[in-house]
Amino acid sequence: MEQETWSQSFVAAMTALWTKVASFIPDLITALIIVLLGFVIARIVDAVLSKGLAKLGLDRLMTGAGVTKMLGRIGIASPVSAVIGKIIYWFIILTFVVSAAETLGLARVSATLDAFALYLPKVFGAALILLAGLLLSHLVAGMVRGTVESIGADYAGGISRLVQGLLVIITVSLAIGQLQIETQLLNTVIAIVLVSFGAAAALAMGLGSRDTVSQIIAGVYLRELYQVGDRIKVEDREGVIEEIGTVKTTLVDDEGRFISIPNRTLLDKPVSL
């Protein structure tokens, strides 16, 4: 009697186990098909997107903006188009893995992967903000450099790098905010730096640099009045203009000596050609 009871229990347990295995196998096959389909679709999208972005000139644009060089410093040797393609590749695979986990009834795994998948668009958004900010900072730095050089200032490179650095800092702050990371302290530091820089610049321009500023402005007018190679005479100094610099103009006299004259002097004193 006891042996029959034990046999019945064993048969019942094996039947229940086989029923679960039999019901799980179709779900497992379906999940594997979903994952395999995800890999195929991800590869196709990766190839099409990478080649399309490369043909549109994204890699050349990012190289000019310095993004490719920055990626190389952190160990990423692939072009930007390939990096974007791989990011989309893994995002598609993750989406299909979430679907496969739901098919298998793995609720906790599915919920975790789903939360991660929902966070990825924020990461993409932050990456786009960072790329756009780096590109914009490069373009603005070039414009600032060209503008400063057009007035003959010698510190065009320093000013352009300073502007680019400030824009990069602001871009990083915006990208971190997109990731929903607390940036109040960082924003406060940036505001303090900007205000301090503005106050220092205003103080320098208003006090210690008034004469320098007047010389720079005079240089702008001198470039409209004279050209390199013109022979001029001011007071007892005479020579050929060698250079109209930021704050002074350099002449070369008949003996080959260089004569430096403040730009403001050439505007205030009579000059004969």
Automatic annotation (TrEMBL):
<keyword id="KW-1133">Transmembrane helix</keyword>
<feature type="transmembrane region" description="Helical">
    <location>
        <begin position="185"/>
        <end position="207"/>
    </location>
</feature>
<dbReference type="InterPro" id="IPR010920">
    <property type="entry name" value="LSM_dom_sf"/>
</dbReference>
<keyword id="KW-0812">Transmembrane</keyword>
<protein>
    <recommendedName>
        <fullName>Small-conductance mechanosensitive channel</fullName>
    </recommendedName>
</protein>
<feature type="domain" description="Mechanosensitive ion channel MscS">
    <location>
        <begin position="211"/>
        <end position="271"/>
    </location>
</feature>
<comment type="similarity">
    <text>Belongs to the MscS (TC 1.A.23) family.</text>
</comment>
<dbReference type="GO" id="GO:0005886">
    <property type="term" value="C:plasma membrane"/>
</dbReference>
<dbReference type="InterPro" id="IPR045275">
    <property type="entry name" value="MscS_archaea/bacteria_type"/>
</dbReference>
<feature type="transmembrane region" description="Helical">
    <location>
        <begin position="118"/>
        <end position="141"/>
    </location>
</feature>
<keyword id="KW-1003">Cell membrane</keyword>
<dbReference type="Pfam" id="PF00924">
    <property type="entry name" value="MS_channel_2nd"/>
</dbReference>
<dbReference type="InterPro" id="IPR023408">
    <property type="entry name" value="MscS_beta-dom_sf"/>
</dbReference>
<dbReference type="InterPro" id="IPR006685">
    <property type="entry name" value="MscS_channel_2nd"/>
</dbReference>
<dbReference type="GO" id="GO:0008381">
    <property type="term" value="F:mechanosensitive monoatomic ion channel activity"/>
</dbReference>
<comment type="function">
    <text>Mechanosensitive channel that participates in the regulation of osmotic pressure changes within the cell, opening in response to stretch forces in the membrane lipid bilayer, without the need for other proteins. Contributes to normal resistance to hypoosmotic shock. Forms an ion channel of 1.0 nanosiemens conductance with a slight preference for anions.</text>
</comment>
<feature type="transmembrane region" description="Helical">
    <location>
        <begin position="28"/>
        <end position="49"/>
    </location>
</feature>
<keyword id="KW-0472">Membrane</keyword>
<keyword id="KW-0407">Ion channel</keyword>
<keyword id="KW-0406">Ion transport</keyword>
<keyword id="KW-0997">Cell inner membrane</keyword>
<feature type="transmembrane region" description="Helical">
    <location>
        <begin position="162"/>
        <end position="179"/>
    </location>
</feature>
<comment type="subunit">
    <text>Homoheptamer.</text>
</comment>
<keyword id="KW-0813">Transport</keyword>
<dbReference type="InterPro" id="IPR008910">
    <property type="entry name" value="MSC_TM_helix"/>
</dbReference>
<feature type="transmembrane region" description="Helical">
    <location>
        <begin position="70"/>
        <end position="98"/>
    </location>
</feature>
<dbReference type="Pfam" id="PF05552">
    <property type="entry name" value="MS_channel_1st_1"/>
</dbReference>
